[in-house]
Fold these 2 entries.
Entry 1:
Amino acid sequence: MFFDYAVIALYFAGMLGVGWWGMRRSRSKEDFLVAGRRLGPAFYTGTLAAVVLGGASTIGSTSLGYEYGISGLWLAGMLGLGILVLSLVFSRKLSQLGVYTVAEVFELRYNAAGRLLSGIIMIAYDLMVAVTATLAVGTLFDVLLGIPRVPAILVGGGIVVLYTVLGGMWSITLTDLMQFVIMTVGIFAILLPVSVAQAGGWAHLQQALPSSYVDITAIGGDKIFSYFLIYFFGMLIGQDVWQRVFTARTQRVARYAGVAAGAYVALYGTAAAAIGMAAKVLFPDLPNADNAFATVAQNVLPAGVRGLVLAAALAALMSTASATILASSTIAANDIYARFSRKRSSAGVAANRAFVVGGGLVVIIASLLVQDVVGALTIAYNLLVGGVLVPIVGALFWQRASATGALASMAVGSLTVIGLMVAYGMDANAPIYVGLGASVAVFVAVSLIAPPTERAQLASWQARLRGEGVPEASARG
């Protein structure tokens, strides 16, 4: 195992080195939170793809491939489709707003109470996603390298927090680019071809597995639709994703490089599902399908190369963890703390770094206590989509949307989702179906009944959507 340990040690050292270099570029709040809004196509594609591809896309898609076959691609496929639509439909409006967070949109379009409530929901979502990624880091170390879960979480989570604190978005962007390259090589160039070849090739996979394993809809229409509601819409409104859109140098970069990132995410999910199929042929009796990725990597790859593939999986997980920790701390510092602080300037670089440390500690502690990765991820996306999606879409596309309607929609949608998850379980489809429906109905009904947004505020909002009236530091063509 020496070579595997050496590869992982080099990977961790590289992450910290890049984090230190990023610190030298983070001289302002704009640099720390959105990389100065200066990313070109290559950096933007890499960082957007890396933040989306986490434990669900890597370990989860491989697990689904092990259970259902090639139709396991739908989870990551919906993530990729969400990025595609975000880039083509929403990115221009988001780039013109010149904001740092999703919650800011609520105050610009609705009121301060909307900003506070949406910020709380978004923080809960981002922290839960960060916990799932950190948990998966511990699982990989335990299965592949025999390192116990607790020290693995402490080391992996600690490194993520450290390089995020050092340079903020610049550090994350640079580490994401490294992670994007490692993921591409590790998954597409090594584990996919080697595992399929070890299983006898694609033709033998088709013969050895049930016919449903090559049916793209075998996972079931209900599950595909559930992934659409949760993951597709989740990509449209998540702070971790929006914060990447804000880093684009131009609207053209956000649009076309975003399309490339979405296509890459969908291909990545397909590759992971195929690896899961190979694992099913090679190791048909795994007690837990979630171990399919680690098991196939451990058994089909030689020493050293196995370490590189583990680094690829860690890259996917750590990029998600760092992005969501920064996203939650950005909202906590700028949309909640600064709102109640006597000095609004307190949410500068130093304050944002302090909140990254605090958020990172919360994630590490929660990761040591929580066991159910899928459950935490389901809660996160159900809460996000059920509580925040409708008011955001209404803010961007419906002039009659009102602050009262937005607050009522968030409250009813969130409480409905939580209540139904308690009643029916986290794996049930009812929470997101009913919660989203209730959010839409309440938003429309209350907005039509309540007084409309004042003309001056609506005019100011529409000017922001056109890129007018944006603070100079945030304006980018």
Entry 2:
Amino acid sequence: MNKPDFERVERPDLDPRDRAIHRVADAVHRLNEAIQRAVNEGVSVELVRVSRHHGGNGSWGDQVVPTIRDSGRAANDAA
């Protein structure tokens, strides 16, 4: 049987804080890829902070929503 060219590498055990940081970083990476795809399709995307979540221990995080504008439709509607 042929051995595959790759092997699964397990992530190291992370404490909950580091796991949370990695989860946010992964989500932001996926969000940035989605924004690039949308922009390449003629959509303008702006992230707007709508609230700030406070953890009660001095930590906080901004929460955002996308504002979307379809550049192609705006140009076509004006013609």
